[in-house]
Design brief:
Elements: H1 17-23, H2 27-40, H3 44-50, H4 56-66, H5 72-84, H6 88-94
Helix pairs in contact: 1-2, 2-5, 4-5
């Protein structure tokens, strides 16, 4: 969080590292990124850091909907969304 590893605090017009990892690239990179996001979501500070990116919940919901079957990627996206649902704003977005 201190070093803003995933550029969640970067300005909107910049393409953030997290966008590049989630939206473009290799399937294996996407799976590892989702596992990392799910792990960060375990902690309160991790959720706070990740939710600074305003469209992260929408991106995770889209990944969850697009993924067919019960894959590792889908399980991690669902796990991260469950952890984010502890906050009111992401709850509202998910509804």
């Amino acid at each position: 969080m201190h070093f803003d590893l995933l550029d969640c605090n970067a300005e909107q017009r910049q393409r953030k590292i997290i966008d590049k990892l989630l939206l473009g690239g290799d399937r294996r990179v996407l799976e590892y990124t989702m596992t990392f996001i799910n792990a960060l979501g375990n902690e309160c500070l991790g959720r706070s850091y990740l939710l600074q990116k305003p469209d992260l919940v929408e991106t995770l919901v889209r990944i969850l909907k697009d993924e067919q079957g019960d894959t590792h990627l889908r399980q991690n996206a669902l796990g991260a969304l469950q952890k984010f649902s502890l906050r009111r704003k992401p709850q509202t977005i998910m509804i």
